[in-house]
ABC transporter ATP-binding protein (Amycolatopsis pigmentata), 286 residues
Amino acid sequence: MTTLAENAASAVVTTDPLLSVRDVVIRSQAEDREIVRGVSFELTPGKVVGIVGESGSGKTLTCRAILGILPPHFTISGGSVRVAGQDISALTPARLTALRGSTISAVFQDPASYLNPSMPVGPQIAEVVRVKKGLKRRDARRRALDLLTAVHLRDPDLVYGQYPFELSGGMLQRILIAAAIAGEPRVLIADEATTALDVTVQAEILDLLADLRERTGLALVVVSHDLAVVAQLCEEVLVMRNGDVVEQGPTEQVLYRPRHPYTRLLIDEHEQYGLDRFLGREEAAS
Ligand SMILES: Nc1ncnc2c1ncn2[C@@H]1O[C@H](COP(=O)(O)OP(=O)(O)OP(=O)(O)O)[C@@H](O)[C@H]1O
């Protein structure tokens, strides 16, 4: 039987956003300056927030700050990050590690660099399941096979025993997504996760993320330089430039009625090479 206090505690947890980023400032101690200034957004279950902006604007550092994995010499010098109601600055390294993978997880570009090249991919996913979900070896293997199926890899039994070098970029990105969702996180950060992939594979991965969101209520942070990707997936968009959020709001507003000159510039540049895909959504929205 649960006590009143436990009921009250669980009620608090369910009303908290899954992720709350408030006025986050990231400072480089090496350069003695602020690199990111004042990023704020919230994620509730199933919500998808996009971050766009030029190279070097601070998108990846923002993601790393949220995950508690800033590179050396970078610190969160202002604001707060709360994951499922917990302020990450108050957590011990061990609790932060436990949170990563089980509550919040991430997929970055260049999947090969996140996998052990000398180990088949299946056991690598099984290992995540074993550590994050506490399953026994045989159950972890079964669950890893289910995950390979869930990310729509054909012939999961074959893929399970294959090494990273035997798989294509699109397959490796699916493997990383499988590993990232192995601990059943509630928030997934996809940082340029489809950038290196060809258009067809990219579309399949985006469908997969949309499907996970619908089936499991997974909330997403999507970082992409591709405005078509953001238009397709996100409800809210942040536009970053030089460490500042220059515009933020519902996707329809930011991408189709931009207010800031920089957002307009991004859209104009984008239309030069992605006109048909980008406008396809605009027509549908109007
Ligand atoms: N590990 C690091 N060491 C030193 N400087 C870094 C490091 N990571 C990022 N920076 C610097 O911090 C700033 C923001 O970088 P960040 O990677 O967050 O940008 P971004 O918007 O993700 O760019 P891109 O689209 O190219 O990935 C840049 O000036 C970058 O050079």
Strands lie at 19-28, 33-43, 48-53, 74-83, 86-87, 104-107, 187-191, 219-223, 236-241, 244-250. The longest helix spans residues 261-285. Residues 83 and 101 are 12 Å apart (CA to CA).
